[in-house]
Amino acid sequence: MKALVKYGKGENDIELREIPEPIPQRNEVKVKVEATGICGTDLYGYSALKPPVVLGHETAGIVVEVGEEVKNIKVGDRVTTETTAYICGQCKFCQSKDYNLCIYRKGLGSAVNGAFAEYFAIRKESIHQIPPHIDFNSASLFEPLSCATHAVIEQANLLPHEIVLVLGPGPLGLLTAQIAKSLGARVIICGIEGDEKRLSTAKKLGINQIFNIKKKDIKNYLSKLTVEYGVDVVFECSGSAEAVEYGLNLIRKGGRYIQEGIIHQPIQLRFDQILFDKELSIIGSRTQKPSSWDKAINLVNEGKVNLKELVSGVLPLSNWKEGFGRAKKKNSIKIVLQPDK
Ligand SMILES: [Zn+2]
Ligand SMILES: [Zn+2]
Q: What is the pLDDT of residues 94-120, one digit of tens each?
């Protein structure tokens, strides 16, 4: 089968190769891929990436084969999957199903062959059924939605009356903003030059306020809105080092800062001003775990988030270079690849 292989750590060490189809183990499910979204980690890498590996972890497809231990999942089921491909099952984190923190965890499309291919295989526990009203392209966004759900509901414990600032209107930011709004928070999302399309999508999705921070003074707006206190919670979704300090400065005393984007370089911060003077809580949010998926699927079933609006391009897998190129540009949102028919 055709598969997109990352064969080295370099940004361009990627090629389409012919490899054997996966054979599902006793507890695994083999899925025929219908749609797989391009993630920032496919474009820029991250620490868990172990080449050579087939990329792709935001995916949806149809079950074509199940191992002998698999019950309740049948050939023909429309499914999506958690990215947890292997866990130790023994550690403190596995005991509480915080699989995203298991030291021995292996992820789909980073350490285990992923879904930019015609087929992939994964442990049965990671499989989730796609709600009937959701198409495959939209369903490929369940993974980033679960990451955003983990951040907003499980890490920030967001409250309905809170004022939220989301930095970065990419797919993760737009999902985060939608979840926060669905919980009853007042949500402001901001971007910079080039983000116009993404910000107008945010507006379409009903986010309370959009801001191009290079064009309009957000400090002034926020100080009126919050009677000079600052926002309750900042979600950093851009992965830009500059955004960190920018966001920290806009939070009220005692507020929360949640890091969702991946920042690839070291940054310097004045911890006396952040932790001592302001008593801020700085919280990390790493991918997703089973509880995040259950909540994310509920949000979709209740009609509280729109996934379809975020799919801005669909291309055949053979055209992956164009897809990756478009995914790097800010005038697109989520680019999805489909195996060639
Ligand atoms: Zn991803
Ligand atoms: Zn473990």
A: 999 999 999 999 999 999 999 999 999
Entry pTM = 0.97
pLDDT in tens, 217-226: 899 999 999 9
> Which domains does the chain possess?
2-141+307-338 (3.90.180.10), 146-284 (3.40.50.720)
The answer to whether the beta carbons of residues 16 and 117 sit under 8 Å apart is no
Q: How far is the CA of 109 from the centre of ligand 1 (A)?
A: 9
Q: Determine the number of helices (DSSP H) and then strands (DSSP E) in the chain.
A: 11, 18
Q: Ligand 1 mean position to 17 CA, how many Å?
A: 22
Q: Which ligand is nearest to the CA of 40?
A: 1
Q: Which ligand is nearest to the CA of 95?
A: 2
CB half-sphere exposure, 204, CA atoms < 13 A:
13
Structure confidence at residue 217 (pLDDT): 87
